[in-house]
Structure formats: C-alpha cells, structure tokens
Structure of Urocanate hydratase:
Amino acid sequence: MTPRKYDPVVYKTPTGSVLNCKGWVQEAALRMLLNNLDPEVAERPDDLIVYGGRGKAARNFESLDLIIKALKDIEEDETLLIQSGKPVGILTTHKDAPRVLLSNSQLVPKWATWEHFTELEKKGLMMYGQMTAGSWIYIGSQGIVQGTYETFAALADKHFNGSLKGTLSVTAGLGGMGGAQPLAVTMCDGVSLIAEVEEWRIDKRLETKYLDVKYTGIDEAIDRAVEARANKETISIGVLCNAVHLLQRLIDRNIQVDVLTDQTSAHDPLIGYVPHTLLNEEANALREKDPQQYIALSYDSMKLHVELMLELQKRGAITFDYGNNLRARAQEHGLKNAFDFPGFVPAYIRPLFCEGKGPFRWAALSGDPADIAVTDKVITELFPENKSLQRWMKMAKEKIAFQGLPARICWLGQGEREKAGLAFNELVRTGKVKAPIVIGRDHLDTGSVASPNRETESMLDGSDAVADWPVLNALVNTAGGASWVSLHHGGGVGMGYSIHAGMVIVADGTDDAAKRLSRVLRNDPGMGVIRHADAGYDIALDTLRKNGLSIQERLK
Ligand code: NAD
C-alpha cells in the first residue's frame, strides 16, 4: 500500500462564520488541528509533522480522519479523548468542560527514553506531540518569534545597552522554531549568521521574510557577516552548512562572535540532529539503515558542537543554550563542563515568568487578517504603559507574514491575559470581528512546565525536576473550563526531560465563554506565579500578593 500523503483539498482549514461542527468550541478545535497541518504552517505535512523534529498533530492519517469526524459529531456536553494522537473515546461531560482532552507521549518514568518511545512509535502505539504540535495551537514561526525576540531583547538590555546594533549573533537551525531567530535578531537591530543543513528550510525562511539572504559558501557568509557588523547594518544571513563546520571555521579564522546559541533539533539525536560527519543524503540513508550508528555519530557531533561553543565563549561570545538540550547530550557523551554556559530561561526569561508573563497567542477563526488588525488595536489600547509590548506590536504588524490562519502573539502577564481575553470576547459579541477568536499559548510558559534543562533550570529552591506543577496546571485548566487541555511529555528537550501542559480557550462572544475566559486566563498564569513564589522568587511573591493569589493572605 502506498503511504498516504497530505491532501490540501481534503484537509483545507475551514474559514468564515459557517459552522461544520455542533458548536464553536468543537469548530475551533477542528480549524486549529487542520491549521497545524496547513503546508504554510507545518514543516512536513505529508508525515503529519508540525515542527520540532517529529512533533505531530495526529498519530497517522486514519487517526486524523477519525478526529475530524469526531469533532464534527460531538455535542456541547461531550468530551473527545486523544491518546498520543489517536481518538479513543467520547464521554459525557458538561457544557463548561473541555471539548477535547489530550495526553501525548506519556511514559512511566523508568521507560521514558527515546529508545523505548521509538519502539512504541514503530508499533503504532504512540506519537510525539512536542508542545503545540500535538495540542493543536501551533501558529507557524510567529509563535516563537515573540519569545525569541524577548530573549534577544533581554540579552541586549543586559549586555549591550538595549540594542544589538554592531554585534554578530551566530546560531544554527532554521526549522519551525529556529526559523524565528533571524527575525528576532533583526528586530533588535543586529547581524545574525545561521547555519542550516537543509536548503529548503533556508528558502522557506526567505519566502516568509524571516531571513534576508542565503549563502552556500561558509567563508563568503562569514565575510558578509563581518562586513555587516562593521557597517552596523541590520541583516540576517543563512548559510547552507552544518553548525559544527561554521563554528570551527569561525574559530580557525579567529572571528570574534558577540552572541552564540543553537536551535538545531538536538533534543532528538535520531530524527532531529544531523551529525557533521554526514552529508544530508547520507544522514537520511543511515537513519533508516542503522539508527544506532546514526545516534552514535550524532552524539560525537553534539559533543564537538558544545566544545566549539565553549571555545567561542572563552573568546568572549555571550553564549547560552536555546532550549534544545544540546548541553545534556554532550554531557551524556562525557563532556563534563557542557553546562558551563547557561540556559536561556535562567539567563533572561525567569523574571518575566515571575510576573506571570508568557506567550499569549490568538488566531482569527474567520481566516480574515482584518480581524487580527482589530485585535491588534485592542491590545495596543489596553496596555499603553507596557512599552516593550507596544514596540513588539508595531514591529509584528510590519514584519510578520501570517502562515495559515491569521494569528498574533504577545507576552502578557498576570491580570493582562484575563483582560485581553474578555476584550476579545466582547469583540465577537458585538460583531466587530467576523467569527470567534481562539486563544492559547505555548507550553513553554510560567506555570505549565517542568523541564530541568530549560524552563525550570536552576530554580532558586532546587525544585527543577518537580513535575507536580504542570499536572496541576492541566487539572486546573480542565476544572476552569478551557476549551481543550493537554498534558505532554518530552517536548522541547526530549524523552525523559520534561512534562508540560497546554490549554486553549475560545472567545465565542457568549456570557458562558466570558465566565470561562475569566477563570482560565486568571488561573493559568496564576499557577506560574504561585509556582515561582513557592520557589522563593521575590518578583513572584510580589505579583502573588498584588493579584490576591497568596494562600497565606487568604487563610490569615
Ligand atoms: P526543527 O526540527 O523544525 O528544525 C531543526 C533544524 O535544525 C532543521 O531545519 C534541521 O535541518 C537543522 N539541523 C539539524 N542538525 C543540524 C546541524 N548539525 N547543523 C545545522 N542545522 C541542523 O526544530 P525547531 O522546531 O526549529 O526546534 C529546534 C530546537 O529548539 C528543538 O530542539 C526544539 O525542541 C527547541 N525548542 C526551543 C524553543 C525555544 O523557545 N527556544 C521552543 C521550542 C523548542
């Protein structure tokens, strides 16, 4: 039997204000699932892969077809259950309960390895959900642009007086997430030089204007980057090569690098990372023929990769890990000082998490970009005092091309998310937008993830690996009435390294939705504030008190 492929007609995302399902919440789930797989959005729709190595939206095409059928069928007091990308049941709940509950890639801790997962995946028993792939709220690279921008902006504030002008940032990986890097550095006025082994990925980022130019020769690319830095230009340069080869060449030529990171899919040594000792075609062949040998080469390469990063750090580059678990891979392979450079969360993002700030995103179910323009205006007017938000919104409108359903993202904190959600519901109720708005977030957020090498690295109280928090987060969002809730394992950093939860909520203009929005958009970031306050962070303790979230105050 020939393997099935993505069919753009059958799986086209519905738009407009006519329902295909029995309610807007089910309709939103249907549209966002199909939007995840839209070729403009997904990295490899033929394999149902959305982003992040092998992060999928459904286990296989049979499951996809069945999920679509189920979403069209379920009533407003029923809930569809998804087990690692496969629909397994429809149960009676009630109108304020989630319409879909998803659990993806969960393994009992002792079995939580890629080896065991891959075995199960081959038998058709599991699927890797990454973060927003398996929870149907990926919106293309824009989703990560804001987070990446926040990181580079915080780095610029900390080390370069607020701007990357006249600096060179070197990184690798132009995939679903990594593709946001060039644009984020450009937004901070710097020069970026990015290695990528697959030419089509570079071309895709050029098409969406996330990247400015492509080079196929390493030396030419380096020359252009050095010249641009000297001229204080703002430009992003993609170079077709392995990250290891680029870093080695920068060292050989004694080029000073200002900022250094990496976003290859190092979390997955088999499907995600390409060893520097293999050409692409060789890598594809070996992956099939001898996965063990492939993984061994990957580990060799990742160890060298981190050694080169440490060398450039020694030579003055501000170096950080960008959430792909590269350091752990190198350490697993014997590099003792792999963690000598920090992860991006403790280095730049945690103070934001302490205020309940995180990646709030929304999409216009109408499919009409004009609806996003209306929401952009509302957000800009709601938070005039938030200067970095104002700057982001201006640049996002100018520089970000929509992929799939028109969508927007911005980082909002405790109190702000609830305010925004209710304002959107009002836009739908008063007909200022043409269809409901769906609101969600990445799992990379303040209260929704335990990931000791990333979001919860170096917690003040040493609670990095405590995973009760994301579980509570999924439970509280279910209790509060989110539209769909997911609990995943292994996203971002790979099997055994993370547990995280997602939530999505629909603003359909009804009074019931307003109540649900108010609860969920207060509780969800609130979990993050509580989690960070419990770990002892002063900013979180302050946010906790200001927002009436303190259990001590409550029970006094
Ligand atoms: P992806 O699989 O879509 O893209 C990875 C890219 O790296 C691919 O284009 C691949 O060709 C390229 N690549 C692989 N090995 C390479 C090498 N040695 N040299 C040069 N290029 C190479 O993954 P993605 O969605 O872009 O995510 C990248 C990584 O970042 C993942 O590990 C992911 O878990 C992690 N991540 C980071 C964040 C964050 O906020 N920083 C968030 C989510 C995920």
